[in-house]
Design goal:
Elements lengths: L1 H14 L5 H13 L20 H9 L4 H9 L9 E10 L10 E4 L5 E13 L8 E8 L5 H13 L7 E4 L6 H6 L6 E4 L30
Parallel strand pairs: 1-5, 5-6
Antiparallel strand pairs: 1-3, 2-3, 3-4
């Protein structure tokens, strides 16, 4: 039963590929089963890639994926009996030596400072409470005309249109700010955001209800 489901899943993924679909599908298999990828050409030596090494380049240059249809198919794998958990984040692909790489730029690399390369935004589904794997639903490059916040908001909006239930979506502290909240205000999902340790949250103090500790104002000005 499981193998039949896997076969049908793979067949549907194959049908969502366009030009050079055979080479592209085998290239994806080569990436999945390779414990390490020392070079791009090494993928052509995988036992599941049955074409010549030049087909690896043809698969990426000519191959295309129908992303909208692919995303709709991936969403159908998400159970809706309970509220699904999604996670989102951005990552940097360092390419300091690739001087001719299209749209390469300077990006925040966290504690390591500023890095040169391309950033990507990922939105994934977490299928299990315990475990370390997830199913990426959208993984797209953040262009120089976008930011991690605007890209994440766009991905969240696209995903919300496909799900029949309201998901819970978790983001790291980079997204715990007013800009991201404003950009996602009209989107359905429930957001679980981590706040930075120096984040100042303020507002009008509510009236004391008579239960618990009374609300207090900040003793000093927030930075």
């Amino acid at each position: 039963m499981i193998f039949e489901q896997l076969r049908q899943f793979r067949q549907t993924i194959y049908e969502h590929l366009r030009k050079a679909k055979d080479a592209m599908f085998e290239l994806m298999d080569a990436v999945l089963i390779s414990p390490s990828i020392p070079s791009f050409v090494s993928l052509s030596q995988s036992r599941v890639f049955r074409r010549q090494w030049s087909s690896t380049y043809a698969a990426l240059q000519e191959g295309r994926v129908h992303r909208a249809k692919l995303m709709r198919h991936l969403v159908t794998e998400i159970p809706v009996e309970e509220q699904p958990l999604l996670v989102g984040d951005s990552s940097l692909w360092l390419r300091a030596e690739a001087k001719t790489l299209q749209d390469r730029g300077f990006h925040d690399n966290g504690d390591e400072g500023i890095g040169v390369g391309q950033s990507y935004s990922t939105l994934a589904w977490v299928p299990e409470v315990s475990g370390s794997w997830e199913l990426p639903l959208r993984h797209e490059r953040i262009t120089s005309f976008e930011s991690a916040l605007t890209k994440a908001a766009f991905q969240l909006k696209q995903m919300s249109r496909q799900l029949s239930v309201r998901p819970l979506v978790a983001y790291d502290r980079h997204y715990g700010n007013g800009k991201f909240l404003n950009q996602t205000a009209e989107i359905e999902p429930d957001l679980l955001l981590r706040l930075a340790s120096n984040r100042c949250v303020y507002g009008v103090l509510p009236a004391y209800s008579g239960r618990g500790a009374p609300p207090q104002s900040c003793p000093q000005r927030c930075p």
